[in-house]
């Protein structure tokens, strides 16, 4: 479950206010405060926190929906870039020669291959030849729709979409369903944060405080400082070049004294950038360095998941860099 929205300081502040409310409830019990006063104060605080949480949900849903629209627009406005135009021309010629020998059944079989990544050139050629063939046109429409919806496969889009779904499903429930990342099998805990259970024993309330505090302590923090540094970054040319940064340059590791967000961005860019399209071209009016950085981080995360040897070397280098504080001199930018 994608829960990076829980990293927000606003989200954490609401949960900390809930914990403060529990601490106050313990004091009321120790002071033997009049029951009606306890009920009144806890009810008011519960309502205030529930409203804050609903406001947070709506803000994040709006924010993530806008980011999803941006990703969709970027994909739809992206054109292909061919590193070798001559090779692309030869591929088209090969397709043309083969296409000339096909009948309708051959073409339908070709289009029916769900594993194939069809080029816009191929789809256009098929569409123009079989305008009156309903069977092919229906399948062709499906393939063109798949290409049109390619933005839904973008890792960042998928994360945002999952978070919007979670936040939307929990609309209107106040603090009855609150998620926090956890190290259990599910990777999260769903909490019911209620201040209205005033008849609980003090030890039960203390146990609740300890549990939520432990979960909250392990929630990562947003790295806004990194984004601020990246905002001023000027992207260099996409032209082929030798790697500037050696593998596992110590400045790419968060947690070291010499960690540099700009170096990490450039390090990932020269290894994981999308060189097949122009969507991260600095010349585009909609270029966004923060979105570009998230794209690179997602690509790197996939590399870590799918390449155990690389992951072992990366995490080993990270461990050494953090342990030594990052003292070695590395290639300058």
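-> sequence recovered:
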């Amino acid at each position: 479950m994608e829960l990076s929205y829980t990293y927000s300081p606003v989200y954490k502040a609401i949960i900390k206010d809930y914990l403060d409310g529990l601490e106050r409830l313990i004091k009321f019990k120790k002071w033997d405060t009049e029951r009606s006063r306890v009920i009144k104060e806890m009810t008011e605080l519960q309502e205030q926190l529930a409203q804050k949480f609903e406001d947070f949900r709506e803000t994040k849903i709006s924010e993530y929906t806008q980011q999803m629209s941006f990703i969709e627009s970027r994909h739809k406005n992206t054109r292909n870039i061919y590193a070798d135009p001559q090779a692309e021309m030869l591929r088209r010629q090969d397709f043309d020669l083969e296409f000339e020998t096909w009948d309708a059944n051959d073409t339908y079989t070709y289009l029916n291959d769900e594993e194939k990544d069809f080029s816009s050139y191929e789809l256009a050629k098929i569409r123009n030849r079989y305008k009156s063939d309903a069977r092919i046109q229906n399948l062709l429409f499906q393939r063109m729709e798949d290409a049109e919806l390619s933005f839904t496969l973008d890792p960042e889009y998928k994360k945002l979409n999952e978070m919007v779904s979670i936040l939307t499903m929990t609309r209107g429930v106040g603090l009855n369903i609150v998620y926090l990342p956890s190290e259990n099998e599910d990777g999260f805990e769903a909490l019911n944060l209620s201040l209205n259970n005033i008849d609980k024993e003090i030890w039960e309330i203390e146990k609740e405080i300890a549990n939520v505090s432990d979960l909250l302590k392990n929630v990562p923090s947003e790295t806004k400082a990194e984004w601020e540094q990246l905002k001023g970054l000027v992207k260099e040319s996409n032209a082929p070049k030798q790697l500037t940064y050696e593998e596992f340059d110590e400045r790419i590791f968060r947690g070291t004294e010499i960690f540099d967000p700009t170096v990490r961005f450039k390090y990932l860019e020269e290894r994981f950038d999308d060189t097949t399209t122009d969507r991260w071209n600095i010349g585009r009016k909609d270029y966004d360095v923060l979105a570009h950085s998230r794209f690179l981080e997602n690509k790197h995360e996939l590399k870590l998941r799918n390449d155990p040897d690389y992951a072992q070397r990366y995490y080993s280098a990270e461990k050494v860099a953090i342990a030594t504080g990052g003292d070695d001199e590395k290639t300058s930018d």
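The longest helix spans residues 35-76.
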